[in-house]
Amino acid sequence: MEVNKSFKSGFVAIIGRPNVGKSTLMNRMIGQKVAIMSDKPQTTRHKIHSVLTRDHAQVVFLDTPGVHKPKHKLGQHMVDTALSTLKEVDLILFMVEANTPSGAGDQYIMNELSKIATPIFLIINKVDLISKNQLLPLIAEFQTKLDFKEIIPVSALQGDNVDRLADLIIRYLPEGPKYYPDDMITDKPEQFIMAELIREKVLHLTSQEIPHSVAVVIEDIQPRPNNTVYVGSLIYVERDSQKGIIIGKKGQMLKQIGQLAREDIEKLLGSKIYLELRVKVRDDWRNKEAFLKSFGYKEV
Asked: What is the pLDDT of residues 87-101, one digit of tens each?
């Protein structure tokens, strides 16, 4: 037993285009769902701190919104949030997809990364979707584009090579303090995670018209008898037609969203909940600073 081994700690940003698997990787590293996952691009809107603690190290991951060309103030906030993390961390994980050709989005991020001195790992995700013969040329291609300290192929969904990645991250971190208690896995309050779990179900169940126009706010949490918790939430959309889609015929879509969200929230809280969902229209909220701030998006 290495009782004299120094403690290492630091902050690690995960950056990449939308939908490359950043949240999946972070959840896999932590061993628990902290960030929501969806096959819809631009799912993550906030910078989420998640904590991996080992005997001699603590890694604080910052999962960032996907970098994309913004079409509204919310989109600009998301891109600004992602790029701002580059100045705050000890290590950067730049994630790309093995099964998608590198394009303008990846090049834009690499141009931003070339301006900083922070060590950068290239994480090639979804390697389970390509053959080994395709992987080596892909690694060779990226080696010519930026000075990556490490290039690690992984499958975040399957967990392939994720433990090795964690070991490499810790190796590069400086000596430092323990920032969070051992049992803490995120700096976000339970209300935030509950709202995100509800939004995840909306993204999963509804059509392409809905995803980016949805915000969820937890209005009320109250203890009830028999170890039950009441959770009241509001789902905001931008148009009446979107409200109709989320409610569904005879309320069936809203009921399904509630059933799936309740299961995840009960796992989070460790108790039974009564989940009330309501839907409200706030016209063009993604372009209104007052609404963005009230929904938890700070300066835009």
From this structure: 778 999 999 999 988
